Each structure stands twice: as structure tokens, then as C-alpha cells.
Amino acid sequence: MTDLIILRHGPTAWNAAHRLQGGIDQPLSDEGRARVATWRLPTDVLGYRWVASPKRRAWETARLLGLDPAPEPRLVEMGWGEWEGRLLEELRASGALTADRERMGLDFRAPGGESPRDVQSRLIPWLAEVGAGGAPTGAVAHNGVMRALYALATGWDMVGKPAHRLTDGCAHRFRVAEDGTPSVVAMNVPLVAES
């Protein structure tokens, strides 16, 4: 079993506005940079092999944490297709995003975008490499990637609430078997030291 720790990038201006980013390459906001500057990784993971999504928001987060990650394109955010740059509330108000569509769980897909199941399809070979390689690994990625990983580890179908809420500003620990199967170790490990 190989240790894997994953965290979401710091906040961007689009996160604050509740705008769908997907593949759009937004940098961290000034507030996001300030927030990441308060984060501290658990000391036991500092010697891990680190990778990051090549999107600026993930890459910048990794650098602010003092990491020198390798780029891992399979960790990019879920593509939202035609909905990238749009607000969820505006999509709901227009009727484009319906309750029936949201209940599709792993098979939910924005027009021209990816589904969470598609994200899992790109994560599975990466997880198999992590598991077979045996090197403890850290990753800086995106919310959609972490949700897809969590669903693989727990069997959550993304319909209804998950057993654990994936909290921002936290890291999530998994173990990866040699065949790439992930399992949960600890969710929501705080990155800010308690005072």
C-alpha cells in the first residue's frame, strides 16, 4: 500500500464568485495567496514525491507551500464544457441545470464537458502508477478530482451527500493498493495550525 495525500488549490476570484472554472486557467486571488500562506503541510509528507495539476491555481498553491511538484495533467479539473465561466445559480435559474440532471451523480455532464466518471477514468491509470511505484505521493489538484477520487475509494455514487464532506483548506489521506485501488485513511486534515 502506498500513501497518497491530496489537497485542493487555494481560492481564486472565480471561486469567491461561485463561477465554474473547469479548464479555464485562473490564478489564485490575492486573498487565496494570503490564505495558502497560512497553510502548513503535515511534517510526515514533506519528503513525499509531489505532483500537481498544471493549472496555475494548483501550481501556484504548490509553490507557495514550498513544493517543487512534477506536472500531472490527469489531475486537471473536470471540464465543464459550455458552462465554464458561468454561475451555478444562473444555470439553475435558466433551467439549464435541473434537479434531474444533478441527480445523475457520476454520470452528470455539462454540455460539451466531462462527467465525474470521465475524471475517474483518467485517475485510474494514474492511481495504478502510484500504487505500483510504491513512493508516497502528494498531489495538489481540484475539487472535482478529489470528489472523483473519494467516490472511487468509498463507492459513493455522487447521488446524495457523501459520508465525509471534503473541506477546503484541508488535506485528504488515502492509501493506494498495488493495483491502484484507493482507500480512505483520514479526511479533512487541517492545514492551518491550531492556535
UniProtKB/TrEMBL annotation:
Domain of life: Bacteria
Descriptive protein name: Histidine phosphatase family protein
InterPro entries in the record: His_Pase_superF_clade-1, His_PPase_superfam, PGM_Phosphatase
Entries under Pfam families matching the protein: His_Phos_1 (PF00300)
Molecular function terms from GO: phosphatase activity
Annotated Gene3D superfamilies: Phosphoglycerate mutase-like
GO cellular component: cytoplasm
Alphabetized SUPFAM superfamilies for the sequence: Phosphoglycerate mutase-like
